[in-house]
Amino acid sequence: MPTEHGNEEPRVLIRDGFAWDTQNAYLFDIDGTLLRSRDRIHFNSFAASVKMVTGFEVSLTGVVLHGGTDTAILREAFALAGIPNEAWEPQTEAILEAMRQTIAVRRGELQLWTMPGVEETLKHLANQGALLGLATGNLEMIGWIKVEEAGLREWFRFGGFSDRFEVRSAMVADAAAKARELIGTTAEGVQPSICVVGDTPRDIEAARANGLPVIAVATGNYSFEELAALEPDACTSSLAELLADTASKDTRVDAKNIEVRQ
């Protein structure tokens, strides 16, 4: 399927010294990074759930969605509607639960497709011995449903979600803590290396806020140039191109070694 920036030339930029596929764990964003959707079920669930629970009318028009968390998007929608916090905050959990149930009931209607190279990249990293997790702005139930419906559930052991975190950096911190707990430390007490993979400036910012390396993938709503300007550790037009670039370099190295041995 075409991406938002599908006419761009395949491009890969990797910081010197950064081995993108040798990290101990990876935290993947979902929307725009792993998959995209043709439907608006999740999008429409915000206003519909607010209306059902509170009676208020809100809209996502003017809300920056890309890289946002569901809980932060909800707060911004109320703010843009001019509804004071005290009028809706006590009903936050009821609104979120209504959203979760909407997706659970309508999961069969979700129209999802995986982004180029996703399954191949997940398999490659798993074969390298990496622990794979999610770090997404979705609510936990919604995130897992999307991953399951896209046929990617087998790859992921844990995740960080927005149910308890409006700020993306806090959600990433939670996911990173889970990764460290699952991996543990080496005999020398060295902490595992954990890499964030996302498609928005907010993913890059959240990774930086936690001192984590980040791979930016231009398969969402931001171009390669926009993401590369923020200096992620790796930037690619797609995971397929990142994997192909690595395979190409490995082939050249193997060929060189053969020449030397001869």
Q: Could you give the distance between the termini?
A: 44 Å
Number of strands: 9
Q: Which percent band covers the strand fraction? A: 5-15%
Low-confidence stretches: 1-7, 251-262
- Quaternary structure: single chain
> What is the overall number of helices?
10
Main sheet, how many strands, which sense, barrel? 7 strands, mixed
The rounded Rg comes to 20 Å
Helix content: 40-55%
The average pLDDT is 92
> Strands of the largest sheet, in order across it?
1-9-8-7-2-5-6
Give your account of this protein's structure:
The chain has 262 residues and is α/β, with parallel strands linked by helices. The protein is 44% helix and 13% strand. The protein has ten helices and nine strands. The chain has helices at residues 41-54, 70-80, 85-88, 92-105, 118-127, 140-149, 168-183, 201-209, 224-228, 239-261, and strands spanning 12-14, 25-28, 35-37, 112-114, 131-135, 158-160, 194-198, 214-217, 234-236. A seven-stranded mixed β-sheet has the order 1-9-8-7-2-5-6, sandwiched between helices. Mean pLDDT is 92; it is low at 1-7 and 251-262.
